[in-house]
Design goal:
Shape: elongated
Order of helices and strands: HHHHH
Helix content: over 70%
Number of strands: 0
Number of domains: 1
Radius of gyration: 25 Å
Strand content: under 5%
Structural class: mainly alpha
Number of helices: 5
């Protein structure tokens, strides 16, 4: 995702930006929901790995070189296992991505405020000067086509991970 590009505002095309903004809100709402779901799934996997390791350690303490089973010993042994370390790293990565998307979602809200401010400035002739009218439908389609290209690239990159 190119969050920065999505947050840019072309002040010469405020009408296009305003029309397009609701699509950004929907886009980032979906991305945020997907990121939260991925984080929740990663947390569930982490909890499952922890529970399975807890069971293995308590069932066969000799395999883990444990002489006396205590809560502290079991917890510390779990933390040292590769399965747990991998699941924890996946959870932390999912949590990181969810925080980034959360920030992008807040940026969409700020973008809305900026659009409102720019429209007010425009209404006060702040941007006055000679200009050539543009085709709103054409400019909006052009922006959508670029977003589809960006989305296609992002999907290909995600598949190649």
């Amino acid at each position: 995702m190119n969050y920065e590009q999505d947050m840019e505002i072309d002040s010469s095309l405020l009408d296009v930006e305003c029309v397009d903004h609701s699509m950004l809100v929907i886009k980032y709402a979906r991305i945020a929901a997907d990121a939260d779901l991925e984080m929740d799934n990663a947390k569930e996997r982490l909890d499952l790995v922890k529970a399975e390791l807890d069971n293995k350690i308590r069932t066969n303490p000799d395999k883990f070189k444990i002489e006396k089973i205590t809560e502290s010993v079991v917890s510390n042994t779990i933390l040292m296992q590769e399965d747990y370390k991998t699941a924890m790293a996946e959870f932390l990565q999912a949590k990181h991505e969810a925080k980034i998307v959360s920030g992008a979602t807040r940026a969409v809200d700020h973008r809305k405020s900026m659009l409102e401010s720019l429209v007010k400035l425009h209404g006060q002739s702040y941007f006055a000067g000679p200009s050539i009218p543009h085709d709103l439908s054409f400019e909006w389609r052009k922006k959508q086509e670029q977003r589809n290209v960006d989305s296609s690239i992002a999907k290909k990159l995600k598949r190649n991970k």
